[in-house]
């Protein structure tokens, strides 16, 4: 991955309820991640919000529905809109998931894991190549959570993520909460993944807290980050040239002040390993 | 002997037949508008969107001045003194239906931590003061502070400099005289043609002058200033709906909310009586400019009502 990417520091996923608090607490947030899909075909008011944010914060777009794992290729209409948005914002990087959300022309409505096969990796890589022709800022890829293991896997999750990163040449957005969630739900050691993942490609981290439902850990982004995730984050930051760490919060959104201690804790981890001042 | 040029032009204009003259007059008015527009654009220094970022530490007084001039700064300063416990609500005076809100100095509070300017304002409240009295006194006390704010806002291109406003007035008056005099040349002839010709001529003259008014008598707040205020109001929109929920931020958020949106944000708070105080001031003054829907009234709509460039609103009395 390009070593010239800037070190951003600590950020938070932008959600409208915290808008004003973000402006009151400018010094506590180094960058914002926006959900790109919210600004495709958006009304004028929403675009004005984006203009305001882009004038005042470093923004990193995070796409959800590009469906890079779809065998028929990416939706050109969606890609066109996404390209217009990302190229206009000109962020240091942008991100999508190692997943698919569309198959056979049908929208699935959520991020689905890819079969961990070479063939799926080839499809993914081809789609990334097409996307790179239209979107100029570098793309980084995020690992997702999965509940059902698709049969026929040729490799482990970490091996698959490593292989996709290698084939596409993209950096990684490592969601440490997703790693932990998968490890809990499928009974493996999350830190063992770090031995396999290409740590030099890790650009950004996501972290959040989930909840347990009927014995399954759900990455709901609605609760405090558990200790195990903090430990995992420390291990990743110690090994990877992380440029940014971002808190995701989608449910039970409290006042921003209540989230600042988590941001500060992440900042401190970055400082400890000299990822930023 | 050859006539001098202006006389020749006047002669040529009066020579045009009446129905054709109306066409000529219409074209003349449009030409005057275009000339005025060219003149105004040449003098506008407030173009561009650079430097419209929301400051990390916004100055509520500066924003209040941008929004509504000296009176808005006065309202904000009084609110801040109330909020910090130096001033408080006086018992109602008056009788029956009409209850007058007044505020005065709170007991047992030493003003030693107030700035010199705040102390001078605070000293005005040794007796209970109503809204009109406050607005008669406080703006004069804070005049020099406001002059500094105005210069800063002019330098940043958010308010039109006084010279520019004078220049625009000059343009409007000259253009208006041109429109009226050319129309006036044919008024007598139009009279002979009948009342319809007169009505059309007068109507065209009115439209011509009104158009110039819209063009020339610019608001004190520049387009850039309006964009900046719009960004501030968007950024702090949640303070508008519930400034009290941000009290944990040292109280400044509430002062900021009043600076950005005006005292109307206090409507659902314990300070709602301040709204009544200023409304009563408008009532007492009996003036449109002080009314709740006008600029400088402290309404949340602020100068959005006056964006069209009424010249009276926008920067309020900032150009004093
Ligand atoms: Fe994530």
Largest sheet of chain B: 2 strands, antiparallel
Series of H and E elements of chain A: EHEHEHEEEHEHEHHEEEHEH
* Form type of chain B: elongated
First CA to last CA of chain B: what distance? 52 Å
Chain pair sharing the greatest interface? A-B, 15 and 17 residues
Give the count of helical stretches of chain A: 9
Beta percentage of chain A is 15-25%
Strand arrangement, largest sheet of chain A? 3-2-1-12-9-8-7-4
Bound molecules: fe (ii) ion
Summarize the structure.
The complex is a heterodimer of chains A (277) and B (320). Chain A is α/β, with parallel strands linked by helices. Helices cover 39% and strands 22% of the residues of chain A.
Description of the molecule:
The complex is a heterodimer of chains A (277) and B (320). With 277 residues, chain A is an alpha/beta fold. Helices cover 39% and strands 22% of the residues of chain A. In chain A, the strands form three sheets. An eight-stranded parallel sheet of chain A has the order 3-2-1-12-9-8-7-4. In chain A, helix 4 runs parallel beside helix 5 and helix 8 packs parallel to helix 9. The radius of gyration of chain A is 18 Å and the shape is globular. By secondary structure, chain B is mainly alpha-helical. Chain B folds into two domains: 94 residues; 188 residues, no CATH class. Helix content of chain B is 58%, strand content 2%. In chain B, strands 1-2 form a two-stranded antiparallel ribbon. In chain B, helix 3 packs antiparallel against helix 4 and helix 3 packs parallel to helix 13. In chain B, 41% of the residues are buried. The C terminus of chain B is likely disordered. The chains are: A alpha/beta (277), B mainly alpha (320). At the A-B interface, helix 1 and helix 2 of A face helix 11 and helix 12 of B. The complex binds fe (ii) ion. The site of fe (ii) ion has 4 residues of chain A, from loops.
């Amino acid at each position: 991955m390009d070593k010239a990417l800037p070190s951003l520091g600590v950020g938070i996923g932008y959600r409208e309820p915290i808008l004003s608090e973000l402006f009151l607490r400018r010094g506590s947030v180094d960058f914002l991640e926006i959900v790109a899909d919210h600004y495709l075909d958006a009304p004028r008011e929403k675009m004005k919000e984006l203009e305001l944010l882009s004038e005042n914060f470093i923004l990193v777009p995070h796409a959800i529905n590009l469906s890079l794992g779809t065998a028929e290729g990416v939706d050109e209409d969606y890609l066109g809109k996404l390209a217009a948005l990302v190229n206009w914002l000109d962020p240091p990087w942008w991100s999508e998931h190692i997943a698919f959300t569309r198959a056979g022309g049908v929208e699935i409505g959520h991020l689905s894991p890819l079969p961990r096969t070479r063939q799926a990796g080839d499809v993914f890589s081809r789609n990334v190549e097409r996307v790179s022709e239209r979107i100029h800022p570098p793309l980084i890829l995020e690992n997702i959570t999965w509940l059902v293991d698709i049969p026929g896997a040729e490799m482990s999750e970490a091996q698959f993520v490593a292989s996709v990163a290698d084939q596409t040449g993209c950096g990684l957005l490592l969601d440490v909460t997703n790693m932990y969630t998968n490890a809990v739900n499928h009974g493996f050691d999350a830190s063992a993944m770090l031995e396999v993942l290409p740590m030099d490609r890790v650009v950004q981290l996501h972290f959040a807290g989930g909840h347990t439902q009927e014995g399954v850990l759900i990455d709901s982004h609605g609760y405090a980050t558990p200790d195990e995730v903090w430990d995992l984050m420390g291990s990743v930051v110690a090994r990877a040239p992380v440029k940014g760490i971002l808190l995701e919060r989608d449910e039970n959104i409290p006042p921003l002040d209540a989230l600042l201690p988590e941001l500060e804790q992440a900042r401190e981890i970055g400082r400890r390993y000299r990822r930023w001042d | 002997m050859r006539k001098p040029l202006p006389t020749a032009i006047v002669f040529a204009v009066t020579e045009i037949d009446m129905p054709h003259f109306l066409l000529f007059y219409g074209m003349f008015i449009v030409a005057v508008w275009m000339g005025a527009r060219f003149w105004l654009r040449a003098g506008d220094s407030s173009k561009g969107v650079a430097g419209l970022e929301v400051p990390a530490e916004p100055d509520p007084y500066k924003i209040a001045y941008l929004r509504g001039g000296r009176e808005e700064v006065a309202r904000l300063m009084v609110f801040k003194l109330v909020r910090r416990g130096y001033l408080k609500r006086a018992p109602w005076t008056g009788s029956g239906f009409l209850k007058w809100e007044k505020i005065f100095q709170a007991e047992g509070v030493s003003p030693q931590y107030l700035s010199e300017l705040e102390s001078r304002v605070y000293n005005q409240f040794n007796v209970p003061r109503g809204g009109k009295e406050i607005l008669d006194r406080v703006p004069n006390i804070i005049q020099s502070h406001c002059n500094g704010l105005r210069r800063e806002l002019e330098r940043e291109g958010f308010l039109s400099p006084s010279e520019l406003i004078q220049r625009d007035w000059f343009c409007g008056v000259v253009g208006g005289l041109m429109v009226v005099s050319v129309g006036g040349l044919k008024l007598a002839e139009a009279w002979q043609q009948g009342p319809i010709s007169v009505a059309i001529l007068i109507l065209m003259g009115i439209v011509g002058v009104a158009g110039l008014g819209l063009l020339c008598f610019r608001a004190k707040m520049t387009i850039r200033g309006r964009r900046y205020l719009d960004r501030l109001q968007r950024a702090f929109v949640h303070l508008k709906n519930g400034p009290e929920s941000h009290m944990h931020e040292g109280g400044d958020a509430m002062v900021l909310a009043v600076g950005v949106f005006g005292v109307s944000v206090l409507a659902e708070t314990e300070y709602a009586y301040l709204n009544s105080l200023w409304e009563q001031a408008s009532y007492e003054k009996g003036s449109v400019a002080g009314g709740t829907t006008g600029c400088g009234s402290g309404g949340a709509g602020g100068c959005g009502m006056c964006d069209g460039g009424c010249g009276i609103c926008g920067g309020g009395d900032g150009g004093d």
